[in-house]
Design brief:
The structure is a single chain. The chain is α+β, with helices and mostly antiparallel strands. Helix content is 32%, strand content 26%. A hairpin with a 5-residue loop joins strand 7 and strand 8. Helix 2 packs across helix 4.
Length: 121
Amino acid sequence: MVRFQTEAAAGLGLDVAGRIESWSWMPGTGWRPARGELGLPGTTGFGARIQVGALAKHIADHVRTKSGVAVSGEEISTQFPNIDYLLPQDLKAVVNRLTSYPDIEVQLSPDSLIRQIGATS
């Protein structure tokens, strides 16, 4: 399923953006969200083009203001809405940059979306 989110895209200055939900057929269990091993991840975005380093720095700075409290993926999406419209390889690059900071820890969901981010002191 592909969802074109034209209102959200326009509000972020994007021409076309959306989210993709992909599914895989598993014998004996039926349809399940895809895991990405053989193609698309279960959920991903498209349409946003960002500077990986700049976005990772902004996210890390935001997380550091939370005084040791982990920030949920939902809060990251609210504070940095372009992240929902990144291609899988761009999101992976942001996560890799975040984890290069010695004080930042990132937890991912099974489909490689950000579950939470914390900063150690």
